[in-house]
Design a protein that fits this description.
CATH architecture: 3-Layer(aba) Sandwich
Order of helices and strands: EHEHEEHEEEH
Structural class: alpha/beta
Bound molecules: adenosine-5'-triphosphate, magnesium ion
Largest sheet: 7 strands, mixed
Radius of gyration: 14 Å
CATH superfamily: P-loop containing nucleotide triphosphate hydrolases
Number of domains: 1
Low-confidence stretches: none
Number of strands: 7
Number of helices: 4
Helix content: 25-40%
Distance between the termini: 22 Å
C-alpha cells in the first residue's frame, strides 16, 4: 500500500477548525481518522471542525473521561479519546466502535493496543499558535485530503 504525506501549518485555532471542516465535508462512510500529538496540541479542536463539516450542530467536547461520544450528522461521528486506555483491557469494545458505520475520530490512537489499519493518520505538533499538521494516508483518503 503506497502511503502519501501532506503537511499543513495553521497559526490559529480557527484555521485548524477549518482544516477539520474540510475533512468532515469530504469524509465518507467508514472513514477513520487517528489524531496523535502531545497533550493540548489541538486534537479536539480539529475534531470540532470535522463535526462542523459533517453538519453536526451539537458542540463537540473532549471525551477524555467518557472515552467515547457520538454525534449525528450527515454521517454519524464517533469521537474517541483513547488517552486513558493505556494498559486498560477493554480495547475490544473500542475496536467495535471504530469499525461501525459513520466516521470515527480517535485521539491518542497510539494508546490502543491493536494498530488501526487503513486510517487517515494525523499527527500534530504545536508551538504557541503555530500548529504543524502531518497527514499520512493511502489512496482511499486522497480525495478527502485533496484541496487542503
Ligand atoms: N493553530 C492552532 N491550532 C489548534 N489549536 C490551537 C492553535 N493555536 C492555539 N491553539 C490552542 O491549543 C489548544 C488545543 O486544545 P485541544 O483540546 O484541541 O487539544 P488536544 O490535543 O485535544 O488535547 P488533549 O491531549 O488533552 O486531548 C486550544 O486551547 C487552542 O485554542
Ligand atoms: Mg483532546
Amino acid at each position: 500500500m503506497t502511503l502519501m504525506n501532506k503537511q499543513l501549518i495553521t497559526t490559529s485555532e480557527a484555521q485548524t477548525i477549518a482544516v477539520g471542516k474540510h475533512l468532515g465535508e469530504q469524509a465518507f462512510d467508514g472513514a477513520i481518522i487517528t489524531l496523535n500529538g502531545d497533550l493540548g496540541v489541538g486534537k479536539t479542536t480539529i475534531t470540532k471542525g470535522i463535526a462542523l463539516g459533517l453538519g453536526i450542530k451539537n458542540t463537540v467536547t473532549s471525551p477524555t473521561f467518557t472515552i467515547m461520544k457520538q454525534y449525528d450528522g450527515r454521517l454519524r461521528l464517533t469521537h474517541i479519546d483513547a488517552y486513558r486506555l493505556n494498559g486498560i483491557g477493554f480495547d475490544g469494545d473500542i475496536e467495535d466502535a471504530i469499525y461501525q458505520p459513520g466516521v470515527a475520530v480517535i485521539e491518542w490512537s497510539e494508546h490502543i493496543a491493536q494498530s488501526i489499519e487503513h486510517g487517515l493518520s494525523i499527527v500534530m505538533h504545536r508551538v504557541g499558535d503555530t500548529c504543524t499538521i502531518t497527514l499520512t494516508y493511502d489512496h482511499t483518503y486522497a480525495a478527502m485530503v485533496e484541496g487542503l
